[in-house]
What does this fold into?
Amino acid sequence: MKTVDLVKWLATAIQLVGYGLTGLNIVPWNVFFFFAGIILWFLVGVMWKDRAIMVVHVGAFLSLGFGYLNA
It folds into this structure.
């Protein structure tokens, strides 16, 4: 398995944990998992040289970050 595939599946698993924690209202751990998943998915975009993946995850990072700081 390629490194990018490992990072992709790890990021997916972490994001799913974040969704589960959100559903259980376990705050702020859900946000921390989302940040980790977002960063890993951004790295996947870098490895694939896919700017769309990078842009969407920068946007997600900024949105989540501003929301977390304003909560």
